[in-house]
Write a structure and sequence with these properties.
By secondary structure, the protein is α+β, with helices and mostly antiparallel strands. The chain is built from five helices and 16 strands. The strands form four sheets. Strands 1, 2, 3, 6, 11, 13 and 15 form a seven-stranded antiparallel beta sheet that branches. A four-stranded antiparallel beta sheet has the order 4-12-7-10, with no helix packed on it. It has a three-stranded antiparallel beta sheet with strand order 9-8-16, with no helix packed on it. The protein is globular. It starts with 5 loop residues before the first helix and ends with a strand. 2-oxoglutaric acid binds next to β6, β12 and β13. The site of 2-oxoglutaric acid has 11 residues, from β6, β12 and β13.
Length: 275
Amino acid sequence: MTYLSSNQLKQYEEKGFISPINVFSKEKAKEIRNEIELIEKKRPKELEKTGRYNAHLVSPLLDAVTHDSKILDSVQSLIGKNILVCGTTLFIKNPNEKGFVSYHQDAKYIGLEPHNWVTAWVAITNSNEKNGCMRMWSGSHKDNLKDHDQKFNKGNLLTRGQTVRNVPKKETTPLILEAGQMSLHHPTVVHGSELNKSNDRRIGFVIQSYIGTNVRQVLGKNSVQLARGVDEFNYHEIIGRPQKLLDKNDIELKKQENNNLQEIFYKGSEKKGKF
Ligand SMILES: O=C(O)CCC(=O)C(=O)O
């Protein structure tokens, strides 16, 4: 059992994130990278665009990461012992591709209420200032949800280019992680990331998010997996876990889930502008 320490809990409360947390060895992180790259080789479009969501549904190895007991111990310290997984995202930035993530709050568009949930960002490669690690605006989770512009800008890895204006970069903290480490962040902390200026890929496998069983999806339908404990609320449909890589039925399930997710992301904000 590796629950969070009182210092880590204090950091989460004050800053809205905890980083770094050791989870996997470098060798394990490399094994995970190889699995991601094998999927890309076998089915070149599978992880592109909206396909980057829910890769854990087609890969037993990514599923095992998602249900890893060390990660779940840390998550339990924040949201309690009954835990659901409601999705994962691969945030991959290839060198020379101009990918970035504008400053945003996850809770603004993910539709999960109340905010008894947390996101785990697992570094599959090293993640640092050169290759565009996440940057957190420390303490910003304590304020209300902020207005976001929708910019749909090129290179932005967020679906609608959701952007909080005037984030003081000087007050943001880079989350420097080695492959195999993770960070945890709060639903309302403002965060983003810049370009990858290195010669290698930056890969984050992000469990987005772990939710308490008392959390509803208020913008649409989100299927979930039970990660730990019991689901005493039954707000969501429970889906299975993959038994082999790229099974035909699992690929179909991932596609359906990702269609549902697109509806959630676009709900009520089809147009450009502020929301
Ligand atoms: O990987 C990134 O650069 C950003 C990820 C992110 O916004 C998130 O995990 O909520």
